[in-house]
Amino acid sequence: MTPATLAPAAGPAAIPGGAGHGSHSAAAAGAVFRVALIGAPNVGKSALFNRLTHSYVTVSNFPGTSVEVIRARGRFAGVSAEVLDTPGLYSLLPTSDEERVTQRIVLSGEADVLVHVVDAKNLSRMLPLTLQLTELGRPLVLALNMMDEADRLEVQIDHRLLQQRLGFPVVPIVAISGRGVAELEQAVAQARNAPAARMPAYTNGVGQAINRTRAALTGVYPVDAEAIVALAIQGDAEALARLVAGERDAARVESLLAAAGGKLDGPAVYRVAYERRRVADELLVDAFSTPQAARSRWSDRLGRVLSRPVTGVPILALVLYLGLYKFVGQFGAGTLVDLIESRLFERHINPWFESVFAAVPWTWLTQLFVGDYGVLTLGLRYAVAIILPVVGSFFVFFSILEDTGYFPRLALLVDRGFKRIGLSGRAVIPMVLGFACDTMAVMVTRTLETRRERVLATLLLALAIPCSAQLGVMLALLSGSGLALAVWSLTLLATFMLVGAITARLLPGDPPSFHMELPPLRLPRVGNVLTKTYTRMHWYFVEVLPLFVLASVLLWLGDITGALPVVIDALTPVVGLLGLPAETASVFLLGFFRRDYGAAGLFDLSQQGLLDPIQITTAAVTLTLFVPCVAAFLMMIKERGWKTALGMLLFITPFAFGTGYLVNLIMRGVMS
Amino acid sequence: MNRHVCSYCGERFAEDQGQQACAGCPLKGGCHFVRCPKCGYENPCTPEWMARLRAWLRTNDARAAGHADERAPQDAREALRAR
Fold first, then answer.
1. How far is the alpha carbon of A143 from chain B, nearest alpha carbon, in Å?
2. Which has fewest Cβ within 10 Å: A129, A172, A195, A348?
């Protein structure tokens, strides 16, 4: 691989199609000298800002937003300047208000010198933003902050070689101690009058698309139009508005951008990001290395094996079989539940509770605590003896996968399949979290890019993603019969794909694109796994126990007032249509509170020998397809609005019963 | 200020930035999770008692190994706070 070089370019200060790469005229004009600190969150921008400035700061909201921009005076090699501490951003293509403000500051060209502050030890991840900033054609300085931490971690950086390749100053600093800050000030002062770097040599059609579009522009822009074109090709609204304003011909701009986008092999967002990554990697050859570099070579190979369909799908199947079926289903929901529920609760704890309440003269009070729907004998037993061991073992499995860095590879693996249902690999985050808790996952759908994706993901989470507790109990319930397990799994998978594909066709909108940087694969640490498992179990238990107690109290209230038998009688014909015994009506009632509560009830009935394999399968399918729980439904209302949430509920409920009806019919037809 | 490494995307971030990303959640402050400001993944926080236990174990290990500079971990924490 030949290392890339970004040669400095000479040129006029302002030319059609951009500000040019030449020396900046602000100094000559005697205007206010402005220096903007740009960088990702937590790279030490504010610490550097404090080092560079020596006067009172001005904190003001960026016009039209609540985002703060901080300004103060500083001196650079004797020259007074205004220093701007901008909100953190990861890319000039913004995804938040903070990033949008920084993008506007940068595109407005108000800063004479841009200082890109990076965390030196994470340089390889931050260099693509440096390349984006070079596209602006402004004087630029790269500040490698936190060099002390990089040294401690034995990260090797040849900043002179990098500077030679980039064509602008690269200064190692430690902002909190002041190391290298004087050199940085000197570099900024010199950069003010120095030529800026040229746009990186992007290939694979990206450079060509940007250059051709730029060459066709006639407007004058405060920064080089390459940067604006690169953003507009990727669909950035701010950049598009600037081009339309500059060219005064919206139709022509759109036609140019469409032509540029058409030359790229795939979504522009992905192609441009890929090119920047590629150029950044080339620039860092021999200039940046970490002690993990050798390890990452095998990690890279393994990562590719995990994310390619031919090898990744069988590995995923093996992971699910060992992790979910053997560990969570058989060990957690089988061995552990048997130990805690059958031996501890049934033999010791429940009889003790009953003996304590035997002395209480009021039957209604005894029923409240130790009756059929007792807070202690039902609510506490379900939460502690059935759900807790299941979620505990699930969270161990989940935390191990999480700590290895497997999930981002899973996102790549499923990206193609997800696109067929209108989603992208990005939706793996809420889907994976949905297996832990659907309520949390529905909330996380807000990180998806479009409303279409958010609605689709919410519907699929509510319909076909069982939460950890339910999943474990269902696996334990179905593990006795391979056929039952296969029917349940295939029904969920088919529902997920079919409903997703149909809804994606019905909902208008563009198909999503997806790209992400992959963190390295690593061996899971026992400490991390235990910490994550503990935190998740603690959170789950604190959330679940009060709801189980509340559900028990409501059932008890229904029981003593006579309302419960009426509801159960009303539900009995419905469960009868599914070929289920009348006892399952109360299970479905529990399922309205929480699917896992209902699953625990089903598990109870199964243990009592009241269900045959077909009935277990039918009840499991129907209950899994229900809306997860009251909390998840409330979150759906909050995130998607009550109309959408109610629409989903009205679709899901008959769909769940209809599918259960068909499963019962088909299984009885085939097996008779 | 505690620093986190996102379990999903590997982003390093301070806890207060994660909390900013959590704004709007009804469980804000009570869920013991912190959301990555970059990718949105919910990361479990280390409980306070566990963090203290780890720090205590590290200090004991350092003492047992006879390291001269036992103040180093404290200094590192101060440095992180300053950022």
1. 16
2. A348
